[in-house]
Design goal:
971 residues; alpha+beta; Aminopeptidase; 4 domains; 26 helices; 36 strands; 31% helix; 16% strand
């Protein structure tokens, strides 16, 4: 029975009070009605996925609406560095636009603090017809590369994208980009005229304006946008993601700093296994060599060069640093979390430029460093532009081939180790270096399937995954009917990712498990595993291999995930209670929305939530179901007779990086307080106003004896309040404050990746359906006291799925195998409860599947709230055989509308309700005056009492109807 039908039954039970409506309408006419339960949209969780921005490309070039100019700020950190402050960027662009018909500019996004992010385009003027033709060719190059002719390629303007200042306190890239804009817009030479007739140059001149102004590497929410290209948690990274299919760059240059000597990529191994490296590396390395030659020849005073010992020197050695050649391991392009590595999947030749001179505390030195960096960067940019003018036809052909291979489903072209340079086309200097340490291969599947139905671990998480794929421009299809693939039968509505698509490299990077590369590389620069299915808790099946003659089911292209955008309510059994089993963050959002709407929620020991629905709450519940797409099941509510603990949103204090707050907000929690040792010491934060304390291990929350912080935390624990957290720090707290005996051990600091875990059979805290987790590094717990219960362990075998354990730092995966990965304190005894989690459940807001464990932990530690009203839990009492009546004693119910069920009428063949039996709405029928179908004599209530009862019932119906209409109108 769906929610709508259940709501109809609640109305039907009130039909007996209809005769009182005339009376109650007169009584209530002069009184305003208030909504008992708030509208379902009052809770606004932080989004987990983000729709692409509605970017409106110019219909012709130039587009020269002046950029809005922000207020000047004397606090801009750029000023002390001697570079252009943010508030002067827009005027500088406006000035160039006013002087040249080659320059266009627009705002393409906003930072966390609301600053505009600008896109500047420099190209020869185009009519609307010419601009439309460029857009048509761009899409055909990507989506139908095999049909594009050489003549059409020659007609296409090659897109070049220069990105600057994604790290806010790496300032000079913005100034370099502006210098390039000025040169391209003012140079009237034949060479530049031809360049702009055949290319478009795009500049995102300051992608992190908050960081630029504030002097921080990260954005205003303390996030590194250049580690965010998969998760897209920052507005700054989403500008890159959303512009990628619009610009579709053939060349991409990312301006950074500071590495003490000019550094121009490509990177060293390990190389991303999903890239078409034979098409990428030749020109990427050749561009770096061209920049090296130009900078060496410029011989800029104060610049540094790469010495023979690998250290920077001001002596011109003839070399800058090129990681592919000079850093053979560790500075890698393995994870696609950086903007250049992400855009390589679009077939772009990418190079990151790291400027040499860094930050100091001396203003004069800072400004000198900036002048040198800008001069060096300008020389490098000039060399890039010259290279583009000379080689763009070859590179464009390679980009077309990347898309063609993907659409055709051809096997990945792998480069053998120690290849003969003479056997490959020029430029072939790269082949002199390539060896077995560079060889990383993969086999693309024919398709992935994201099933719906019983085999899907979490339909709501599956919907999130589909949304994320779509936001990354991955083609997703949906089968309208049941189908069988690879011997597996899938229900209608299941999603199919046909890997014969242009961005198959990106699709596979997001969907594959990844590799364990621990034995191949001694160290890694950043994360080493990021599989969305494994870390988002979604069942995804892999089928076949590239080019295999595997018949895929009939399917339709989708633009949104129906599992999320269309509510999916399970058929409910008879009864007035609904049960919700959390499988991911969306269910916790829905529960928190129920609480925000004032609906009592009970939670069972295994984490299931139960609510009662009545006439006053049904509409609100339906709104929440529609909004979140969660799946309720009907129940008689008798589980509440065993244990009925009310749930309420706790006040959460969190210690740690921004991931902590983001995760809680994405789960729908609203009462959040950041806690630090310093804040506890100075009294700006007190633990009296906190119900649950979450300790992120990255915070290094160290409490010294005898301090105010220690006194506060001890008082908090004495009050019986709960603590949860990750890694070693929370174990230290447990031991230091005498809550439990626990020893924490961890793998090497740099080790990170995906591990297998298994929940303990006799420990109900966690859901055993989620069997993979992210670690950075892995922590496990040993020497456990008697009040410590093991909730989960690392798998005994095949513990490490993918990533880099960091074996060179000491330790091995076997050290963690079978060891407790999650433990609880005082689960079965008195004292403050604690939850210790050995994996990293919210790393950069990426392991979305682990949010289930966060939500369950918070619920388990939270103080009790208002519970759902339990049904009558007594045993039904037999009443004997009722005497039949000659005619129905109960009026026949009026005809019902669609989806509504008529009330029993007492005619032959119907079963009388025995005395003492709970009704479907949880009320117990009385032995007196309630059994009209039995024919037994019953005592009637006094007439005045009956009038009051009918008046209240009628008022309730009228209140409910008016509230329902108000909610419908609001929605």
């Amino acid at each position: 029975m769906q929610i709508q039908t259940q709501r109809g039954l609640s109305r039907g039970r009130l039909l007996a009070a209809a005769t009182a409506l005339a009376m109650t309408t007169t009584l209530l006419a002069g009184y305003p009605l208030t909504t008992q339960h708030a509208a379902a949209d009052e809770l606004s969780p932080r989004p987990i996925t983000h729709e692409p921005a509605d970017y409106v490309a110019p219909s012709s070039y130039p587009q020269q609406q002046p950029l809005p100019v922000p207020e000047a700020s004397d606090d801009d950190a750029s000023i002390a560095r001697g570079v252009m402050p943010y508030h002067e960027i827009a005027p500088a662009i406006n000035e160039v636009m006013a002087a040249s018909d080659r320059v266009s500019a627009q705002v393409v996004g906003n930072s966390v603090e609301g600053r505009d992010i600008y896109l500047v385009t420099v190209t020869a003027p185009e009519s609307e017809t010419e601009t439309a033709r460029q857009a048509e060719l761009r899409d055909r190059i990507r989506d139908d590369a095999a049909s594009v002719t050489d003549a059409e390629l020659a007609e296409y303007k090659v897109p070049v994208w220069v990105n600057a200042n994604i790290h806010g306190n790496e300032w000079e890239g913005t100034d370099i980009a502006l210098d390039s804009i000025r040169k391209l817009s003012t140079d009237t030479s034949e060479q530049t005229n031809e360049l702009l007739a055949n290319h478009r140059f795009y500049f995102t001149v300051s992608l992190n304006p908050d960081g630029r102004h504030n002097g921080t590497r990260r954005n205003a929410e303390n996030y590194d946008a250049n580690r965010d290209m998969i998760t897209s948690a920052t507005p700054e990274s989403r500008v890159l993601r959303d512009l990628a299919p619009v610009i579709q760059p053939t060349f991409y240059i990312d301006l950074h700093g500071y590495t003490r000597v000019l550094q121009v990529e490509p990177t060293g191994p390990p190389h991303g296994e999903n890239y078409e490296y034979d098409l990428f590396l030749p020109h990427a390395y050749d561009m770096a060599l061209a920049a090296e030659q130009a900078v060496v020849e410029a011989n800029i005073p104060g610049n540094t060069y790469l010495g023979e010992d690998g250290k920077p020197t001001e002596t011109n050695t003839g070399k800058i640093k090129i990681p592919y050649r000079d850093i053979r391991q560790g500075w890698d392009d393995w994870p696609p979390i950086f903007t250049p590595q992400y855009l390589t999947f679009y077939g772009a030749i990418t190079n990151t430029v790291e400027l040499p001179h860094g930050r100091t505390d001396d203003t004069e030195t800072n400004q000198r460093n900036s002048r040198i960096n800008i001069e060096v960067g300008n020389v490098a940019m000039d060399s890039f532009i010259a290279y583009i003018g000379e080689k763009s036809d070859e590179v464009q052909a390679n980009q077309l081939e990347v898309f063609r291979r993907g659409k055709a489903g051809e096997a990945k072209v792998n480069i053998p180790a120690d290849i003969d340079p003479a056997s490959v086309p020029e430029p072939n200097q790269w082949a002199e270096i390539w060896d077995e340490t560079d060889v990383y291969t993969t086999e693309f599947p024919r398709a992935y399937v994201i099933p719906l139905g019983d085999t899907q671990r979490s339909e709501t998480n599956a919907g999130l995954l589909v949304e994320q794929l779509l936001h990354h421009n991955i083609e997703v299809r949906q089968a309208p009917g049941e189908f069988t693939l690879g011997g597996v039968t899938y229900p209608a509505g299941s999603y199919v990712i046909d890997m014969h698509q242009p961005l198959r490299g990106l699709a596979n990077a997001l969907l594959a498990d990844g590799q364990d590369i621990s034995q191949r590389v001694p160290e890694m620069y950043d994360i080493s595993a990021w599989s969305l299915p494994l870390l988002w808790g979604v069942t995804v099946d892999r089928h076949g291999t590239s080019g295999e003659a595997l018949e895929l089911p009939a399917s339709d292209t989708v633009t949104a995930a129906s599992a999320v955008t269309n509510s999916s309510v399970a058929e409910a059994a008879a009864g007035d209670y609904l049960e919700l089993i959390p499988t991911g963050p969306i269910e916790y959002q829905a529960v928190n929305a129920l609480l925000a709407a004032g609906i009592p929620v009970s939670v069972l020991d295994d984490g299931r939530f139960i609510i009662g629905t009545d006439a006053a709450t049904a509409d609100t519940v339906q709104q929440i179901v529609d909004r979140y797409g969660v799946r309720f099941s009907g129940t008689d509510g008798r589980a509440l007779c065993e244990a009925n603990r009310g749930y309420a949103q706790p006040r959460i204090g969190y210690v740690g990086a921004p991931e902590e707050r983001f995760a809680f907000e994405q789960l729908g929690f609203t009462d959040l307080t950041e806690v630090s040792v310093a804040a506890l010491e100075d009294g700006s934060v007190t633990l009296d106003s906190i119900d649950v304390l979450w300790i992120g291990d990255t915070a290094r929350f160290k409490i010294e004896a005898g301090t105010n912080a220690e006194q506060q935390l001890r008082a908090y624990l004495d009050a019986g309040k709960g603590i949860a957290g990750e890694g070693e720090t929370v174990a230290t707290i447990a031991t230091q404050f005498g809550v439990a005996e626990i020893t924490a051990a961890s793998g090497p600091d740099t080790s990170n990746g995906i591990v297998r875990v298994s929940d303990a059979a006799d420990a109900p805290l966690l859901d055993d359906s989620l069997q993979t987790a992210f670690v950075y590094p892995a922590t496990w717990y040993e020497n456990l006291g008697s009040n410590v219960r093991v909730e989960q362990r690392y798998a005994e075998s095949e513990t490490f799925v993918s990533g880099h354990w960091g074996a060179s730092d000491g330790g091995a995966v076997q050290d963690a195998a079978g060891k407790p990965s999650v433990v609880t304190v005082n689960a079965d005894s008195d004292g403050p409860r604690m939850v210790l989690i050995g994996h990293t459940v919210n790393f950069r807001n990426h392991p979305i599947g682990s949010y289930l464990w966060i939500g369950r932990t918070i619920e388990w530690l939270a103080p009790a709230g208002t519970a759902a009203t339990a049904p009558d839990c007594g045993e039904p009492q037999p009443t004997g055989t009722a005497s039949p009546t000659e005619a129905p004693s109960k009026p026949t119910a009026a005809p019902t509308g669609p989806g509504e069920t008529a009330m029993p009428t007492g005619t032959a063949g119907e079963t009388a309700i025995p005395a003492g039996t709970p009704t479907a709405d949880g009320r117990q029928e009385s032995d007196a005056g309630a059994l009209a179908t039995t024919g037994a004599e019953v005592s009637m209530l006094p007439f005045g009492t009956m009038i009051v009862i009918f008046t209240v019932l009628g008022a309730a119906l009228l209140l409910r109807e008016r509230n329902r209409r108000r909610i419908d109108a609001d929605s």
